[in-house]
Specification:
homodimer, 129 residues, two-stranded antiparallel sheet, DNA-binding
Chain lengths: 129, 129
DNA sequence: CCTAGTGTTCTATTTAACTATTACACTATA
DNA sequence: TATAGTGTAATAGTTAAATAGAACACTAGG
């Protein structure tokens, strides 16, 4: 896995696992790959994986069973809540950044629309390659 | 200044200075505060400031004059270009993150609109305090 | 010339993140 | 009960970021 060296790897692992859950690749009750396997897959150390998982366990999003494995919580509401929180964090951050760059609310929305439209074209291009 | 400990301080200083330029607090040709003064203002070490400035000088956005100070480039086009680049980076990041959270293009735009609308209410609330 | 203000560079130290390695604890199952 | 698979913990070493402090180089103005 490719990491952005501007932010701690364990933090990026958390985000990766969040995404797996949000897209349904990991469902409530699912067992995660073994920590040693995850370490190999992500090409990082077991301790780094453990740090990410440890925080997610504290957050109540994962549950650990010694000798068995790590599992996604069965509490679906907790997952829904997490997703809303993650989306909100993204929106808040981009809004504040663009606002700091002196864009008005309208300009922020317009620029996002434009970006997505252009991206759509670019993706269409790719498909037709 | 408050920093996010998930990303290097020198990187956050760069962003801070970018924003000062985009909002017009720092205009083309303006002299920046002395590096030692900046270090005091931002409550960081001179070397950390220097690292941020050094990169911006390399980028051609700042110009250094030994014994005089650091100045914002007079090349306004370079600044315009930078702003577009910064906006684009923000849009790209938020788009990819929200897309990874399984939101459609339409949902991404809708959620941003909703966020801004709600934020507007919140800000109105504050004003009336 | 001297001095104050400025950018620049260097060395040493500290801290957090990451890695490497090993050991331990628990579970399931043959 | 032995073994393979799992999570957990501890120790030690490496690296990048940040800090602290000092020294050097240049500019402007008295």
């Amino acid at each position: 896995m490719k990491f952005d060296d501007k932010v701690p790897i364990y933090y990026q692992i958390k985000n990766y696992l969040y995404h797996e859950m949000m897209t349904g690749a990991l469902k409530p009750g699912d067992k995660l790959p073994a920590v040693r396997q995850l370490a190999v897959d992500l090409t990082v150390n077991v301790n780094t994986v453990q740090r990410a998982l440890g925080e997610m366990i504290t957050e109540g999003i994962l549950e650990s069973q010694r000798g068995k494995g790590n599992f996604v919580t069965m509490d679906e509401q907790r997952i829904t809540q997490l997703k809303e929180q993650l989306v909100m964090e993204q929106l808040e951050r981009v809004y504040e950044q663009l606002h700091a760059l002196n864009l008005t609310d309208e300009q922020i929305i317009a620029s996002l629309k434009q970006y997505i439209a252009q991206r759509g074209q670019r993706d269409d291009q790719r498909v037709s390659d």
